[in-house]
Design a protein that fits this description.
Elements: H1 2-23, E1 34-36, E2 47-50, E3 55-58, E4 64-65, E5 67-68, E6 80-82, E7 85-88, E8 100-103, E9 106-108, E10 114-117, E11 120-127, E12 130-131, E13 136-142, E14 150-156, E15 161-162
Parallel strand pairs: 3-14, 4-15
Antiparallel strand pairs: 1-7, 2-3, 5-6, 6-12, 7-11, 8-9, 8-13, 10-11, 13-14
Amino acid sequence: MKNSILKIFLCVLIVTLSLCMASCTEKVYPQNIVYQDDQKTGGDLSFYYDEISHTAVFGGEGEVIAFYQKDLTKGWDKEGNRVGIKIIAPSSVKDYDSGWAKVGDEEIKNGEFYQVVNGEKSNQANFYPIIDENFFCNIEICWEEGSKPQNYQVKIVESTILSEK
């Protein structure tokens, strides 16, 4: 009887450890700094990045965020006011095809957020969230399969103006 209980206990212990090891092996990358994109999508706006809260802040008194038509060549299937940010992926990321991101309510799969240079994906991720009257957007990024997702925020200074069509 004691042997049976011991065997059952060991089996449960092995299964529990296996499940924990499978779920505890997520890669954890450092949060990288966010920059305004090179094209200055949104316009010539004031910009700063708060490394503590992982928040990119755009705009200022009287500054105007440009309005963009939808442009499927850029992956923009909606029109609206946009800003552009870039984040350099952690140097240990090697698989640029398995990552995903969620920008507001838009999901981007298969690493389609990585910039393509000379026909190949680079370690630079670009995001162009639509900014509405809430002046706020969340961005969640999983750099590659098996890594822990990271969260960033985009905020717009209240006195910033949204351009009309």
